[in-house]
Amino acid sequence: MSDTVTIALRFALYIDLMLMFGLPLFGLYGLRGTERAANTVLRFRASVAGTAVVGLLLSVAGIVSLAAAMSGAPLTEVSGAALNAIVSGTTIGTVWLVRMAALLLIAVIAVMGRGGSSLWLGSTAGLAGVAVATLAWSGHGAMSDGAFGSVHLAADIVHLLAAGAWLGALLAFAVLLFRPTDRMTPDHLRLAHRALSGFAIVGTVLVSLLIVTGLINSWMIIGPDNLPALVTTQYGWLLLAKLLLFAAMLGLAAINRFRLAPSLNTALETSDHPSAVSALRLSLGLETACAVFILALVAWLGTLAPPSAGV
Q1: DSSP category for residue 304
Q2: Domain co-membership, 150 together with 287
Q3: Mind listing the pLDDT tens digit of every residue in the chain (311 residues)?
Q4: Is 116 left (phi over 0), alpha (psi -120 to 50) or beta?
Q5: CB–CB of 280/256 below 8 Å?
Q6: How many domains does the chain divide into?
Q7: 51-79 as b/e, with b when 16 or more CB fall inside 10 Å?
Q8: 27, 30, 149, 176: most buried by Cβ count inside 10 Å?
Q9: 237 and 166 both lie in a single domain
Q10: How far is the C-alpha of 150 from the C-alpha of 242, rounded, in Å?
Q11: Quick one: which of 175, 164, 120 has its CA closest to 14?
């Protein structure tokens, strides 16, 4: 199977699982009381159920593609023996089973549970966090052994969870702000402003976690002796592009927090909010685009050997 298909599957799985984790998590810290009820502000039940089903399908496709790559067989001719050897005989297979179990439980809870309640949101976010954590075993975070490897893997898991929380918040803000004009009532805009302002502390924590764990991962994957290779290898160029996009996200997030969110509050007081909403929509759209491109680069980077491997 081509690297393009592998990267596409990884990219789709990253987005799906991170949104499944980040959106209900946002419901816990970003909304209050009846605002969390299903379909009142955000359609938690539909989004969680949909991402769980898609996650199951993508995970099956991923394990089949891995078996095809390891056995050298075409994707349509992967044998049951090859699949069983991976699922029952490798760490990746064990982690895959954990993810599948988490996704199945999420699907059941999404259908049968009381969508939007604090318990429902906490349960789905917790199980989705487990699913997101399993992604660490498909990247460079699981390439080392011993204490060094444990630190690396833990940093990678925290990095993935922080990224998922941020991506889920971006989707939630997009749903809150990209609405038809007749549904952008003053009450709804006040809710959106409160959610944006309330994200300040959570966002600061997420950014701090991303920076710290990103530095740990980079140190362990590349190391200081291989820094010059960042400008001479494909892995290095992609990593630098990821860092530039992350810096752009930080700049846009700062603009949202210190300029655009206060401007929306001022506009609400004067009943003149269209321009403030448009500015926020543009900024959030750009920030989301950066996040999507970063995940595409992460999916690509996971298929490449880092400079420390002698590339």
Answers
A1: S
A2: yes
A3: 468 888 999 999 999 999 999 999 999 999 988 888 766 788 888 999 999 999 999 999 999 988 888 877 787 788 888 889 999 988 899 999 999 999 999 999 988 877 778 899 999 999 999 999 999 988 766 666 667 778 889 999 999 999 999 999 999 999 999 988 777 888 888 898 899 988 989 999 999 999 999 999 888 888 777 778 778 889 989 999 999 999 999 999 999 989 998 898 888 887 777 888 999 999 999 999 999 999 999 999 988 888 764 43
A4: left
A5: yes
A6: 2
A7: bbebbbebbebbbbbbbbeebeeeeeebe
A8: 27
A9: yes
A10: 24
A11: 164
- Tokens (6 digits) for 249: 């996200």
Burial 213-244 (b: 16+ CB within 10 A, else e): bbebbbebbbeeebeebbeebebbebbeebee
Q: Amino acid identity of 269?
A: E
Burial of 150 (0-12, 13-18, 19+ CB in 10 A): exposed
Same domain? For 299 and 211 the reply is yes
> CA 294 to CA 178: how far, in whole Å?
23
| C-beta neighbour count of 32 within 10 angstroms | 12
Q: Which of 117, 138, 159 is the last residue of a domain?
A: 138
How far is Cα of residue 61 from the mean position of the Cα atoms in its chain? 19
Query: Which of 295, 293, 215, 233 is closest to 14 using CA atoms?
Result: 295
| Structural contact between residues 22 and 203, judged by C-beta atoms closer than 8 angstroms | no
Q: How far is the first Cα of the chain from the last one, in angstroms, to the nearest whole number? A: 22
Structure tokens at 139: 């990247």
pTM: 0.92
Phi-psi region of 223 (alpha: psi -120 to 50; beta: other; left: phi over 0): left
Its domain, for residue 190, covers 145-311
Are 283 and 255 spatial neighbours (Cβ–Cβ below 8 Å)? yes
